[in-house]
Amino acid sequence: MAMLAVLIPLLTLGVVLVLGRYEEMLLPQEDAGRREPAGVPPGAAAASPAPAGTPAPSP
After folding, report:
1. What helix, strand, coil percent values describe the chain, rounded to 5?
2. Mean residue pLDDT across the chain
3. Contact between residue 36 and residue 42 where contact means Cβ atoms under 8 Å apart
4. DSSP code of 13?
5. How many CA atoms lie within 13 Å of 48's alpha carbon, on the beta-carbon side?
6. Alpha-carbon distance 16 to 35, whole Å?
7. Which of 24, 30, 52, 58 is most buried by a 10 A CB count?
8. Spatial separation of the C-alpha atoms in residues 8 and 1, rounded to whole Å
9. Span of 23-27, 45-49, 53-57 with lowest mean pLDDT
10. Rounded to whole angstroms, what are the CA distances from 32 to 1, 21, 25, 38, 54?
11. φ/ψ (deg, to 5) at 36
């Protein structure tokens, strides 16, 4: 029984890794180099908003 407790997670990890490689082979990302990073939308760096917690300027 202790042997099963060790082997089942290792076999599961192996299956997940093999399926990940199979997915990469089946669906290659040809345009991965052309995409921009998903962190900051374009134009957001130029117009930085006020930090959270600061009151809005009075008109």
Report:
1. 40, 0, 60
2. 79
3. yes
4. H
5. 4
6. 27
7. 24
8. 11
9. 45-49
10. 45, 17, 14, 12, 39
11. -85, 155
**C-alpha distance from residue 36 to each of 30, 32, 48, 55, 59 (Å):** 14, 9, 19, 33, 37
d(CA 7, CA 2): 9
The amino acid at 50: A
Token representation of residue 13:
């990890």
- Distance, in Å, from the CA atom of 33 to the CA atom of 14, rounded to the nearest integer, reads 29
Structure tokens at 47: 């117009």
Closest Cα partner for 36 from 46, 26, 44? Answer: 44
**pLDDT digits over 40-49, tens only?**
666 655 555 6
